[in-house]
Amino acid sequence: METVVSGIRSTGNLHLGNYFGAINNFKKMQYEHNCFFFIADYHSLTTHPTPEDLHNNVKQVLIEYLAAGLDPDKATIYIQSDVPEVTELYLLLNMNAYKGELERCTSFKEKVHKQPDNINAGLLTYPVLMAADIIIHKATKVPVGKDQEQHLEMARTFANRFNRLYKTEYFPQPYAFNFSEELIKIPGLDGSTKMGKSENEGNAIFFADDPKVIEKKVMRAVSDQGPKEPNQEKPQAIQNLFNLMKATSKPETYNFFEEAYNNCQIRYGDMKKQLAKDIIEFTTPIRERINDIKNDNNYLQKVAKKGKEKAMDSASNTIKEVRSIIGFKHF
Ligand code: TRP
């Protein structure tokens, strides 16, 4: 059993890409490991949200993760800012995080490019806060995508540096979680290879979309005139439709359309109709659960409180030991 930590960005509605990229794996992990899943609201301050947006985004993400199957009785699900020990560890790690290495971080360089008028110290030290998130629970595994690999490497650097500096083996090294199954990458509906909330309108299918909207989006997905020869290689947009179908439809359904494609008998209208039906079937329980809990403040409060308590237990223990290792002493 490993200790697993993952931070969830607190922005925007969740879509099918989030489900098959992360949530699906979180759901499995929570029954097999000691999991901490938190909503990274401190991190979101780097872009200066209004107080209302800050709260609403956290709430929305919490609701949707719960609706999609994160189980607060299994995993520790909490809000980052509910556990201020994280910020203390962040401060302590900052003393041994160097300007040069932080400036070389790819995500920092991207932000500098994207928001040249708001290059704040929080952005620069984003990887330090992320390291604190992870090692506060002495995690060994972090389920993140390729885009977070450099951050994870920096977390190892900071953990290592602490150990070396204080001649201890206190912090274990956190590594990326290797999923047993291949990561399923969900394509967009606009012919692009990635489903994402910031892509074109109609690219993503959100959990909160109602059936009519889903049907419209799928029927409008990019396709083409159809294959001219048997067993032809599929163009990107068509491959995308098949990939979506593989993730959400029954294997028989997938095979049926695959064969139709290979025989040049495929009708994309029929395929899309079926795909929309299967996606609606898949997302309906999630949407219903979102609607059940979104106004149930009592329940959300209970979940957040329980998560906070469990996370603080673990975090305060680490901070106590770290303070002692560093040499803080009570009079
Ligand atoms: N940086 C991560 C992202 O953008 C979010 C995150 C913050 C995180 N702290 C973390 C992920 C700790 C894993 C562990 O997706």
The ordered string of helix (H) and strand (E) elements is EHEHHEHHHHHEHEHHHHH
How many separate structural domains? 2
Q: Round the Cα radius of gyration to an integer and report it.
A: 22 Å
Please identify, by name, the CATH architecture of the largest domain.
3-Layer(aba) Sandwich
Percent helix among the residues?
55-70%
What's the number of helices?
A: 14
Tell me the total number of β-strands.
5
Determine the oligomeric state from the structure.
Answer: single chain
CATH class of the largest domain: Alpha Beta
End-to-end gap: 39 Å
- Distinct ligands: tryptophan
Give the integer mean of the pLDDT values. 94
- Derived from helix and strand composition plus strand pairing, the structural class reads mainly alpha
Task: Please identify which CATH superfamily of the largest domain we are dealing with.
Answer: HUPs
The CATH topology of the largest domain comes to Rossmann fold
Strand order of the largest sheet: 1-2-3
Low-confidence spans = none
Q: Give the strand content.
A: 5-15%
* Biggest sheet overview: 3 strands, parallel
Structure description:
This protein has helices spanning 16-32, 41-44, 51-68, 85-94, 99-103, 106-114, 121-124, 126-135, 149-165, 211-219, 236-248, 251-262, 268-293, 297-326, and strands spanning 3-8, 34-39, 76-79, 141-142, 175-176. It is mainly α and 331 residues long. It folds into two domains: 3-177 and 297-326, 3-Layer(aba) Sandwich (Rossmann fold), CATH 3.40.50.620; 201-291, Tyrosyl-Transfer RNA Synthetase (Orthogonal Bundle). The longest helix is centred in the last third of the chain and has 30 residues, at 297-326. It is elongated. The structure holds tryptophan. Tryptophan is lined by residues 5-7, 9, 40, 43, 130, 133-134, 142, 144, 148, 151.
